[in-house]
């Protein structure tokens, strides 16, 4: 807890109970397959834990964390942004268009090809995102079972 406290302080953020709880949720999520959370999911998880935090506060904290570099925001062709801890390791995403499941992956061949393409066009890459959309195995199996 003290490292979280020091982390927030070092980023110039006042340590408040909502900030600490939201940071803890993302740290817990980072250790699972459900690493990406929307504001509504954060709000719901806080409510489930008995926290009295308003949705506006959740949005405000998420924005503050994003600006401070603690979180990364993604728009995966959904109406809601999804957030994940702003970890230094680059990764790309697969998104299921049926259930919204998000898988992370790293592929050295894709990374190499992107650099080659940037070089061919005279670009020096600063950063990039790659998001592949499809239907996950579970949703395909559910559809097959229904059909």
What's the CATH C level of the largest domain? Mainly Alpha
According to CATH, what is the topology of the largest domain? Arc Repressor Mutant, subunit A
**Rg measurement, Å:** 18 Å
What are the segments in which pLDDT stays under 50 over at least 5 consecutive residues?
none
Q: What would the average pLDDT be, to the nearest integer?
A: 84
> Can you identify the CATH superfamily of the largest domain?
Winged helix-like DNA-binding domain superfamily/Winged helix DNA-binding domain
Task: Give a short summary of the structure.
The chain is about 50% helix and about 15% strand. With about 150 residues, it is of the alpha+beta class. Strands 1-3-2 form a three-stranded antiparallel beta sheet. A three-stranded mixed beta sheet has the order 5-4-6, with no helix packed on it.
Explain what the structure shows.
This protein folds into two domains: 1-88, Winged helix-like DNA-binding domain superfamily/Winged helix DNA-binding domain (Arc Repressor Mutant, subunit A), CATH 1.10.10; 89-147, Dna Ligase, domain 1 (2-Layer Sandwich). The chain is α+β, with helices and mostly antiparallel strands. It is built from six helices and six strands, in the order ααβααββββαβα. It has helices spanning 2-10, 17-30, 39-48, 55-68, 108-120, 137-146; strands at 37-38, 71-74, 82-85, 92-96, 102-105, 131-134. The strands form two sheets. A three-stranded antiparallel sheet has the order 1-3-2. The protein has a three-stranded mixed sheet with strand order 5-4-6, with no helix packed on it. Helix content is 48%, strand content 16%. The protein is flat, with a radius of gyration of 18 Å. α3 (39-48) packs across α4. A hairpin with a 5-residue loop joins β4 (92-96) and β5.
